[in-house]
Amino acid sequence: MAKYLGKRIFYIILTLFIVSTITFFLMKLMPGTPLTNQAKLTPTQIHQIYKQYGLDKPVWQQYLVYLGGIIHGNFGTSFQFSNQPVSYLISSRLGPSLIIGGQGMVLGVLAGLVVGAVGAIKANTWVDTSATIISILFISIPSFVLAVLLQYYLGLKLRLFPIADWGGFMYTVLPTLALAASPLAETARFMRTEMVDVLSSDYIELAKAKGLNKVGIIYHHALRNSLIPVVTIIGPLAVNIMTGSMVVENIFSIPGIGEQFVKSILTNDYPTIMGLTIVYSAMLCVVLLITDIVYGLIDPRIRINK
Amino acid sequence: MENEKDVLEVRNLKINFNTYAGTVQAIRDVSFDLRKGETLAIVGESGSGKTVTTRSIMGLNSPNAVIDSGTIMFKGQDLLKKSRKQMDQIRGRDIAEIFQDPMTSLDPTMKIGKQIAEPLIIHKGMKREKAYAQALEMMKLVGIENAEQRINNYPHQFSGGMRQRIVIAIALVNYPEILIADEPTTALDVTIQAQILDLMKELQAKTNTSIIFITHDLGVVAGMADRVAVMYAGKIVEYGTVDEIFYNPKHPYTWGLLNSMPTMDTGGTELPSIPGTPPDLLDPPVGDAFAARNKYALKIDTEKQPPFFKVSDTHYAATWLLDKRAPKVTPPEPIIERQKHYAELVHQEIDKSKGNHVEEQEEQL
Ligand SMILES: Nc1ncnc2c1ncn2[C@@H]1O[C@H](COP(=O)(O)OP(=O)(O)OP(=O)(O)O)[C@@H](O)[C@H]1O
Ligand SMILES: [Mg+2]
Question: Does the ipTM exceed 0.90?
Fold first, then answer.
């Protein structure tokens, strides 16, 4: 297990290295400059600013400086907020994003499992059909549309939750719901397919032959076997949540990294963009590692060895 | 029960399936008995209704099945009238089943000890320890080595043959009256197949369980069954003791099955299979369903279904060829060979009983 972990962590570092390299050079290729008021500046002023941020050096030198910084957890200084180190910017904004992202993920997956399982157990009845319709709706409605709808109806009309801003659990409810919709739908669809499969398998037939009743069959045999494959979609769902959060955080004015990411792109704040890209990649790598470990733990056919 | 020895009596069973294409008449008036401790083989080509018949004994037919008529009497009660809950209590306790493919019949995520103990926990309300202890005994009984350690293994840690032993252990752990085995060895290779069949016979001798053994391989039947029922297109067309079916078959369909059975002599050579295909059960033919494939078919075969004709007390066949008015036909060569062998068998039996008789008399003297 330790050896396996070591190997995986090595690969994560390698991945992050490649990601940072690619983002670095992509940033260099991007059109536009970080100076919003370039037209008003004299060439000397521009040169001075470039020098301050090390942009006057050759690209390969900038790259080495950049890599050296990352190793020490230093992503440089934000262009947008002149004196703020990117690492501080990110760490101070990570909390809200992790909270709504995490809540959205847990809610989406759990509700999705229930909806999917019920759909499978009641396959081809009106219950199943309704579950499918809900899934299709949630998959096809973009999260920003859902966010605005939630904001309008639950926030503005019914005044159940704050419309926007940050400050306690109530503020997390609407963004969590907006983020949860898509993972819910994906999980439900996946779970339904898996469970329909499992319920028609030979070992369920054998469980019936043992005299196990319907509840017993589902509880003792069907659930666990359908749940295992669902673990494999957690990674893609995490990506889903991360991209969703960029829009949702903006709509609800949540001071998170998603909101920051969008802002940074709009202002060509290269160091922040690069820093956030690496943070997102790192989060995804960790999620994938955890799901693989969990998969190995719950599926006896897969044993993580060496 | 008509016969004291019977543990199960199926009478006039008719089962239809509602499908989009129409009503499939899968079981068309099937009756048979199962005696205490015997093995009854049901043989027939694919689609003849073997599985549907046994599924209805288990009360596990698919939702689109309609029991048109019939009774399945077990311990004086009609299983077809039982509620789902009542059937849950009978399955796995009084009637158990083993399936064709041991690679997929076990829950891949549950330790086998638990899977074997499950029927004890469900039906006898046993505590975990006691159920596991009994599961362990069962594992030893079906020949799993190192049972103490292996009880904590998962199915993927066993070979196909071993898995089928585990499935058998699950089925027999409650010592059921009836064991249904639906092609239990088809998925196994030949040597393993023989071992599993031996195990089943051995356990049957110990437990006195009655077995319904389904197969389309007559070769397996010879060493396994006491009696054989031959099914075709949702009907039983001939039934009798193993010797009667193997050496004195009367129905042309049974002839065809026997001729396509591999034997020592035929070895690897190509076997003649019965030409043609079974009829469409959406719209079964009026007369004998086998007529279209039967080169001995009479005119009446296309008009009227044949009743059962008695060959002996234990042997019946539904073919017009047995009618008094039917012309004499010569069966295929290999069947004649078999009948000669049968004649010898019968003689030996008679001699033996005479011999016994003589001995008895001598003792008396
Ligand atoms: N759920 C169902 N819906 C419609 N028709 C069915 C259904 N189940 C079985 N049948 C039909 O009933 C007939 C008998 O099927 P059955 O499975 O009993 O055959 P079998 O003798 O067991 O064949 P095999 O040797 O292939 O297992 C077939 O014609 C089959 O198509
Ligand atoms: Mg079958």
Answer: no
DSSP class of A232: G
> Which residues from chain B sit within 8 angstroms of residue A207, using beta carbons?
107, 118
* B230 in contact with ligand 1, CB cutoff 6 A: no
pTM for the model? 0.86
Q: How many CA atoms lie less than 13 Å away from B324 in the CB half-sphere? A: 0
Is the per-residue pLDDT at B265 higher than 90? no
3-state secondary structure of A165: coil
The label of the residue with tokens 């320890």 reads: B129
Q: What is the pLDDT of residues A254-276, one digit of tens each?
A: 999 999 999 998 888 888 999 99
Q: Report the C-alpha gap between A296 and A3 in whole angstroms.
A: 15
CB-count exposure of residue B49 (10 Å: 0-12, 13-18, 19+): buried
- Least confident span in A101-110, A149-158, A295-304, B52-61: A295-304
Q: Does A219 touch chain B (CB under 8 A)?
A: no
Per-domain boundaries in chain A: 94-256
pLDDT score of B356: 60
Q: Is residue B26 lining ligand 1, measured as CB closer than 6 Å?
A: yes
> Which residues is B180 bridged to in the sheet?
B97, B212
Q: Which residues of B touch A299 (CB under 8 A)?
A: 109
The pLDDT of residue A43 is above 90: no
Instruction: Give the ranges where A72-201 is alpha helix by DSSP (H).
Output: 86-121, 126-140, 143-150, 169-199
Interface contact B88-A221, CB threshold 8 A: no
Cα gap A102→A107, rounded to integer Å: 8
d(C-alpha A237, C-alpha A234), whole Å: 5
Which of A284, A257, A296 lies closest to A87, judged by CA?
A: A257
Question: How far is Cα A280 from Cα A278, in angstroms, rounded to an integer?
Answer: 5
Any B CB within 8 A of A125 CB = no
The predicted model gives B190-206 an average pLDDT of: 92
* Alpha carbons A82 and A49: distance in angstroms, whole number: 11
pLDDT digits (tens, 9 = 90+) for B266-302: 555 556 788 889 999 999 999 999 999 998 888 899 9
A132 in helix, strand or coil? Answer: helix
**C-alpha B104 to ligand 1 mean position (Å):** 20
| B51 pocket-lining for ligand 1 (C-beta < 6 Å) | yes
Q: What is the pLDDT of residues B124-182, one digit of tens each?
A: 999 999 999 999 999 999 999 999 999 999 999 999 999 999 999 999 999 999 999 99
Q: Which A-chain residues 274-303 have CB contacts (< 8 A) with chain B? A: 298-301
Mean per-residue pLDDT, A203-213:
96
Average pLDDT, chain B: 91
State in Å: Cα B57 to ligand 2 middle.
Answer: 14
Q: SS3 for A13?
A: helix
The shortest C-alpha distance from B44 to chain A (Å) reads 22
Q: Compute, in angstroms, the gap from residue B162 CA to the centroid of ligand 2.
A: 22
Query: What would the two tokens of residue A196 be?
Result: 């329909």
Chain segment B294-330, per-residue pLDDT in tens? 988 888 999 999 999 999 999 999 999 999 988 888 8
Q: CATH classification of A94-256 is 3.40.250.10, yes or no?
A: no
